[in-house]
Amino acid sequence: MDVSLPETHMTWLGERTLVYQCGDDAPAIADIISRLGIEQVENVVPVFGTVAVYFRGLADPSLVPSEVFSQVAQAQRTKNHIVPVLYGGSDDVEIVCQRLGVDEGELAEAHSSATYLCKAIGFCPGFPYLQGNYEHLSTLPRKAVPAVRVPPGSVALMGSMTGIYPIERPGGWWLIGRTPLMIADESLDFFPISVGDTVTFRPIDSQEFEDLKGMRLT
């Protein structure tokens, strides 16, 4: 049986990795391949509409059956995560509002009214790259000078992407708020947000921020 894919759908990344172009089905297809339990496959990673299959030895396209690309409906369902956010509280907010021509309330309303799709996890363990469906907030470039320390829980904006810092890190995105929740913990193997999940943000006040501080994201 020929289990190869058209060249436009599969590329080699070195000798040990195959990359499949899967569009929005990437998370589901990655899940299917992972559940096959192929002994020679070391890891399967969905990111930005692609699935990278890492082999323990030389990559072998014949080990990934073409049937998996028509079995998307059988994959695990994705989740929607509601992330509470205390908007404001950083020096970036005033600059962001000036550049976008909005006030803080309008910024919070616009940002929290969008639905975000997790396109990748990276940069540091548990950092979600969330693509939003807004237009007038998508004109911000990266900062010219990154911040040396970004507090954990910071919600940051850059172009059409939003990120949430799970731990303190340097960062070049614009900080517009902060969530009190723990969104990832490598030591506990706690990573609730997966590629393909959706995220919505819920504005909260300072009292609710204190009430929710340290709780886990579900």
Key traits:
Gyrase A, domain 2; four-stranded antiparallel sheet; 4 helices; 17% helix; 31% strand
Oligomer designation: single chain
Structural class determined from secondary elements: alpha+beta
Low-confidence stretches: 1-8
N/C terminus separation: 43 Å
- What would you give as the CATH superfamily of the largest domain? Cyclophilin-like
Can you give the mean pLDDT? 89
CATH topology of the largest domain: Cyclophilin
Computed CA radius of gyration, to the nearest angstrom: 19 Å
CATH class placement of the largest domain = Mainly Beta
The helix content is 10-25%
Shape designation: elongated
What does it look like?
This protein is an alpha+beta fold and 218 residues long. It has two domains: 7-74, 2-Layer Sandwich (Gyrase A, domain 2), CATH 3.30.1360.40; 80-212, Cyclophilin (Beta Barrel). It contains four helices and 13 strands. Strand 1 (10-12) and strand 2 (17-21) form a beta hairpin. Residues 1-8 have low confidence and may be disordered.
